[in-house]
Amino acid sequence: MEDLYKTLVKPTSEVLFKDKGSKFFGYAFPVENEEDIKYFLEEIKNKHSSARHHCYAWQIGTEKDKIQYRANDDGEPSNTAGMPIYGQLQSFDITNALIIVVRYFGGVKLGVGGLINAYKTTAQMCLEAADIIEKTIDIHYKITFEYKHMNTVMRIIKEKNLNIESQTMNLSCEIVVSIRESQAAQVPISFEPFYEIKLTEL
């Protein structure tokens, strides 16, 4: 379904691919934003500080107009590292993920084809070793209302199987709820008859 996407449950264990003396260490991480990406890149660069190449690719986003991605060759010949890694994210249909492949040169040049194969294979090994989960794309709403409307609000939340993400209960109350995208259109309709209850999509 269109409101489902696949991502990683947790960081993968280190994988190793060897070719003609060169060693390629691969890692995959679940990420939500560019701060996550910077953190994991620094972590791997510190771990492999003597390596010359820390190549990577990432993708964030779940809808076509919001998807961001980047592929970085980090000194390797153009398009021999970052794009082959990114190609595996596409092949496995994974998003909100970062793959880093670290290369130690073994003294024998692999050539363009050899490099492409090595980075692609290492990224593939990462994802084959990963715990992959399917998640729903959710829409979030904020419900603002006076306490006297509590029963009405809670009844609708229960009827529509809305997930409560947070709530503040005072004289004026606020509840943030979520529901998967394919079922979200019915939510505003449910609140329409109650003009004193305010529904805002976040």
TrEMBL record:
Stretches assigned to the Impact N-terminal domain: 20-127
UniProt record, GO biological process: regulation of translational initiation
Gene3D superfamilies reported in the protein's UniProt record: Impact, N-terminal domain (3.30.230.30)
A GO term from the CC aspect: cytoplasm
Domain of life of the organism encoding this protein: Bacteria
Family note: Belongs to the IMPACT family.
Protein name: Impact N-terminal domain-containing protein
Taxonomic source organism: Galbibacter orientalis DSM 19592
